[in-house]
């Protein structure tokens, strides 16, 4: 099939010269000679192509793949090299004992930003316990002392058959990361998790969430955007790449067989996640929306969003370098380190929100474990406290309630805003059944409230809130329920609270 235009052209030329020769009367032998020559040339062209495909056309990389750039020192690679047999097929029910070892992370990155972004990956990557790769468009130095995933170089998509027609090569490259990782044939892989380099993961919770699903079936798991405009532009049925996309082994295997052909149908798409979504649509697989995956398409102060986490295990947080620092008193990266420490010490209850009240004084408390305690100067029922206060803007920089794919409440005037206590310390309780988190009072908002004579939560009495919270049992994720909270004492300006399972008959009211 290759070079048909060249052959047709030469044939056409020959046949027109043939017609001219036809007019030359009495030159039959010359004509026969020319015919012979043309046939011989034709045979030569056709059969020489078929007989000796010694050098594959470098422009025809379709169906081929290059062995990616490997760091020979990567111990995992040495243990599970490309020639080890793949566990195939998985049997039904192989989700029963899912472990971190069964997940391979495919981190999408670019050579230019990787030197900065790797600091974010370091916050959650645990070398030796996790397997995965960072996919770049060109080689980058891998320093084993940094304990990061190994760097791999993606195939050059410009050289794929459809590549030259595509303008957004990065999107095509990243949408193929799962496919390229699949082809490495690593053993015991049940899930491929596509991640961005500016995302933090709770991998413990990821294991919990994925263990609900059977990797021998087709599963496409992730989250939508918080901004309606983004969902409208892409799709409400798409797993946004930044929040992480979990693809079951079976679905990845199906993608490998069709994705390159599928991508040819969508030259106009821009992103990698919408290209992947387009192909998964061709396989007829819907999105399973898990509430712990956070694309985090917001700008500004993340307090309202992170302080109202849904009752589901926290899995991921994207755009950590776009939003304001998570703790206003700390530099952005220091804040992320503290947040990650809390996340790793007690992943189950991390960011889980519980409510308690001081009815006499008219205060409502919202505790978000590992992040913040908010003290509202009025009695608010759970139905209201669980809504996100709009402390942030949507991705399009608008902040009306209709911009968000979330339940929200507008932050009213300063007097209705909460007093804030941000995490400043965390330790495991003796015996390890509970964790103690300390939250210290944020002065800025106090000053402003004092200035306007707002309903005052006395600073002279409380400057620290100490929360003792039970670790959540592993099975909590299957039937999640909000924990109950109570105020247990006040001494030396430390207000003590307890968070744990609700007692039979207990309801969350003032
Ligand atoms: C592998 O390790 C050896 C010895 O530790 C070192 O000299 C070499 O540069 C390393 N290679 C790579 C690609 O990191
Ligand atoms: C899961 O682990 C338990 C305990 O180790 C074992 O009894 C059970 O057979 C395992 N299930 C599967 C499907 O491997
Ligand atoms: C929490 O606060 C209490 C009281 O101020 C203090 O004794 C304790 O050491 C703090 N713990 C942590 C982990 O910061």
Describe the protein in words.
The protein is 28% helix and 20% strand. An 8-stranded mixed beta sheet has the order 11-12-13-17-18-19-21-20. A 7-stranded mixed beta sheet has the order 3-2-1-4-7-6-8. Strands 5-10 form a two-stranded antiparallel sheet. Strand 20 and strand 21 form a beta hairpin. The N terminus is likely disordered. Bound molecules: 2-acetamido-2-deoxy-beta-D-glucopyranose (NAG) (3 copies). The site of one 2-acetamido-2-deoxy-beta-D-glucopyranose (NAG) has 3 residues, from loops.
Low-confidence stretches: 1-18, 46-87
The number of distinct β-strands equals 21
The CATH topology of the largest domain: Spore Coat Polysaccharide Biosynthesis Protein SpsA, Chain A
What strand order characterises the main sheet? Answer: 11-12-13-17-18-19-21-20
CATH architecture group name of the largest domain: Alpha-Beta Complex
Quick one: CATH class of the largest domain?
A: Alpha Beta
Put simply, the count of helices is 14
Describe the global form: elongated
Q: Tell me the span between the first and last alpha carbons.
A: 77 Å
Q: Percent of residues in helical segments?
A: 25-40%
Quote the beta fraction: 15-25%
Number of domains: 2
Structural class: alpha/beta
- What is the gyration radius calculated from CA atoms? 30 Å
State mean pLDDT (0 to 100 scale).
85
Can you list the ligands bound to this structure? 2-acetamido-2-deoxy-beta-D-glucopyranose
Largest sheet: 8 strands, mixed
């Amino acid at each position: 099939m290759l070079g048909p235009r060249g052959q047709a052209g030469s044939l056409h030329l020959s046949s027109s010269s043939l017609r001219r020769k036809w007019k030359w009367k009495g030159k039959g032998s010359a004509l026969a000679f020319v015919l012979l020559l043309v046939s011989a040339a034709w045979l030569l062209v056709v059969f020489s192509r078929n007989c000796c495909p010694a050098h594959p056309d470098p422009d025809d990389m379709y169906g081929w793949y290059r062995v990616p750039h490997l760091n020979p020192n990567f111990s995992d690679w040495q243990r599970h090299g490309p020639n080890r047999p793949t566990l195939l097929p998985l049997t039904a029910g192989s989700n029963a004992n899912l472990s971190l070892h069964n997940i391979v992370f495919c981190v999408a990155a670019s050579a230019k930003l990787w030197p900065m972004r790797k600091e974010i990956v370091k916050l959650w990557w645990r070398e030796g316990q996790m397997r995965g790769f960072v996919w770049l468009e060109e080689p980058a130095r891998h320093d084993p002392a940094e304990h990061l995933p190994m760097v791999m170089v993606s195939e050059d998509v410009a050289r794929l058959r459809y590549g030259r027609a595509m303008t957004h090569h990065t999107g095509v490259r990243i949408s193929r990361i799962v496919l390229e990782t699949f082809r490495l044939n690593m053993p015991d892989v049940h899930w491929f998790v596509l991640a961005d380099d500016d995302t933090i993961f709770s991998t413990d919770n990821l294991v919990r969430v994925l263990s609900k699903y059977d990797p021998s079936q087709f599963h496409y798991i992730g989250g939508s955007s918080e901004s309606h405009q983004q969902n409208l532009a892409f799709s409400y049925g798409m797993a946004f790449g930044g929040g992480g996309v979990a693809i079951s082994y079976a679905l990845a295997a199906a993608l490998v067989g069709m994705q390159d052909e599928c991508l040819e149908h969508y030259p106009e798409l821009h992103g990698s996640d919408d290209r992947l979504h387009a192909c998964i649509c061709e396989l007829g697989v819907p999105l399973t929306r898990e509430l712990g995956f956070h694309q985090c398409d917001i700008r500004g102060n993340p307090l309202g969003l992170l302080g109202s986490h849904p009752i589901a295990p926290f899995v991921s947080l994207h755009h950590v370098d776009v939003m304001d620092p998570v703790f206003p008193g700390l530099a952005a990266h220091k804040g992320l380190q503290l947040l990650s420490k809390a996340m790793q010490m007690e992943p189950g209850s991390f960011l889980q929100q519980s409510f308690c009240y001081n009815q006499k004084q008219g205060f409502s408390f919202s505790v978000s474990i590992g992040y913040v305690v908010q003290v509202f100067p009025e009695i608010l029922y759970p139905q209201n406290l669980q809504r996100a206060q709009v402390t942030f803007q949507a991705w399009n920089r608008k902040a009306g309630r209709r911009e968000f794919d979330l339940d929200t409440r507008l932050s009213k005037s300063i007097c209705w805003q909460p007093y804030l206590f941000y995490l400043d310390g965390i330790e495991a309780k003796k015996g390890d059944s509970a964790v103690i988190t300390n939250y210290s009072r944020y002065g800025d908002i106090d000053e402003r409230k004092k200035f306007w004579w707002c309903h005052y939560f006395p600073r002279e009495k409380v400057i620290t809130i100490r929360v003792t919270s039970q670790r959540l049992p592993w099975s909590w994720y299957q039937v999640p329920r909000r924990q109950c909270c109570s105020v247990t004492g006040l001494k030396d300006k430390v207000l003590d609270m307890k968070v744990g399972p609700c007692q039979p008959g207990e309801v969350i009211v003032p």
